[in-house]
Amino acid sequence: MAHQLLQIIEKDHEEIKEILEQLENASQGAVKKKEDLFMKLKMELLPHMKAEEKHFYPVLGESKSSRQISMEAIEEHHVAEMVFKELDKLDKDEERWSAKLKVFKEILEHHIEEEEEEVFEVAEDVLDENQLDEIMTAFNEEKEKGKKKYR
Ligand SMILES: [Fe+2]
After folding, report:
1. Where are the domains of the chain?
2. How far is C-alpha 83 from the chain's CA centre?
3. How far is it, in rounded angstroms, from Cα 91 to Cα 97?
4. How far is the CA of 29 from the centre of ligand 1 (A)?
5. Which residues are near ligand 1, the ion (C-beta closer than 5 Å)?
6. Span 4-148: which CATH code?
7. Ligand 1: distance of its center to the CA of 128 in Å?
């Protein structure tokens, strides 16, 4: 069974994918609904990504065999964050918003798939139980800290 850290990350992913699904299905005129869902997405996604960037990828980057994949994941985060900022600024009833959301959803789904299939495997390979435990504690703390900003 996968380490608890990876299970937590996967659970976050499920939540994020669910919100994205709801956002995509919201009708163009349902501005308030889309704003609420987007805020929910922001609260879930940004602290999760930051916690990974700060405590997961740097440790993975230290091993030769996981360095490349960790760097790629960081770049994918970078692209996702750029598109997220653009989405944040656009009015939710604009036609462009739905188009951008669709692209954003694809970027994120691709990243999540890669993370769960490739990054997790390599993480369990190069990190021992203690390291995964430590990352998990730091990851959880960072995420909670980030979420507080939106409460
Ligand atoms: Fe990620």
Report:
1. 4-148
2. 13
3. 7
4. 31
5. 52
6. 1.20.120.520
7. 20
